[in-house]
Specification:
This protein is about 25% helix and about 40% strand. The protein is an alpha+beta fold and about 140 residues long. Strands 1-2-3-5-4 form a five-stranded mixed sheet.
């Protein structure tokens, strides 16, 4: 299962060099202000979590149907967007969300079937951070 994390990190890093931080999701965004809680996040950041695994027996071991959460967190008021209009900022954030998705959709990150997105949601958290979360499904053998 750890290979899924590593392969997704590698794919996102290769295809999205503008991402400053790629890591396992250990609750960095759920703690209020990540910097005040001791999490050093640089934005934009991608956090990956294997959220759920349903196991079944297979011919040689077990296979797991996996739900993977991928969160793209962006500082919506970043100084790198100085002078940009709200519409430009929105378009830049949505383009990066699309780029992260395209870097992993239909890939096989150590799995037996390609990873496929089935749900997305968007929300804001304290400090002007916009979060773009997608849930993916795939299957792997253990």
């Amino acid at each position: 299962m750890e290979q899924i994390y590593l392969n997704l990190q590698k794919e996102i890093g290769m295809h999205c060099p503008e991402i400053m931080h790629i890591n396992e999701d250990i609750g960095q965004l759920e703690c209020g202000n990540p910097d005040e809680a001791g999490f050093q996040l640089s934005y934009p950041a991608v956090l990956i979590n294997v959220a759920d695994v349903n196991w079944s027996d297979a011919a040689a071991g077990q296979k797991g149907e996996v739900t993977i959460s991928v969160k793209l967190a962006i500082d919506a008021y970043s100084s790198s967007m100085y002078g940009a209009t709200d519409e430009t900022r929105l378009l830049e954030r949505m383009e990066l969300f699309k780029k992260v998705h395209e870097s992993i959709h239909k890939k096989k990150p150590g799995t037996i079937i390609p990873i496929v997105r089935y749900k997305s949601r968007f929300y804001s958290i304290e400090g002007g951070i916009k979060v773009y979360e997608s849930l993916y499904k795939t299957t792997f053998k253990d």
